[in-house]
Amino acid sequence: MATYSIDLRKRVMDAVSNGMRPTTAAKTFSVSRRVIYRWKKLLKATGNLKPKSGFQKGHSHKIVDLEEFKNFVLQYGGLTVKMMVVEWTKLKDQTISESTMERALKKIDFTSKKKLQLYRS
After folding, report:
1. 8 contacts: CB under 8 Å, gap ≥ 6
2. For the chain (length 121 residues), average pLDDT per consecutive 10?
3. Contact between residue 12 and residue 39 where contact means Cβ atoms under 8 Å apart
4. pLDDT the model gives residue 119
5. pLDDT at 3 (0 to 100)
6. What are residue 41's phi and psi, to 5 degrees?
7. Would you give the distance in Å from CA 103 to the centre of its chain?
8. Which pLDDT value is given to residue 113?
9. HEC-encoded secondary structure of the chain
């Protein structure tokens, strides 16, 4: 997503408010019509053309304490990811998905088991 300068936003909105059609303004200033309509809506709602800020990037992480998670992995590291999810749910009373478990394992540089290997003796 491109971030346009405040100056460009003001010039486009001045042109549109002085009678230029949004389609013409889009071609003239090399922006999309949809962006112009968003800027109009933003200007009407907030009174300025500053882009939105302060929003969260990415998901809220369910496994936040990586040291505690490392200890958990040291204890249950021999299990498959599916089994580790069950143990984590029992321990923390928090439901997580297998992909969340795998991402957390990757963060601590631990490889995950997909299948339980049974060895003959």
Report:
1. 29, 31
2. 87 95 96 95 92 74 88 89 91 89 89 68 64
3. yes
4. 65
5. 83
6. -65, -40
7. 14
8. 66
9. CCCCCHHHHHHHHHHHHCCCCHHHHHHHHCCCHHHHHHHHHHHHHHCCCCCCCCCCCCCCCCCCCHHHHHHHHHHHCCCCHHHHHHHHHHHHCCCCCHHHHHHHHHHCCCCCCCCCCCCCC
Q: What number of CA atoms fall less than 13 Å from residue 3's CA on the CB side?
A: 4
Residue 115 CA to residue 81 CA, distance in Å, equals 8
The pLDDT, as a whole number, for residue 34 is: 96
pLDDT at 63: 86
Burial, 102: exposed, middle or buried (Cβ in 10 Å; 0-12, 13-18, 19+)?
middle
Within 10 angstroms of residue 25's Cβ, the number of other Cβ atoms is: 19
pLDDT value at residue 118? 66
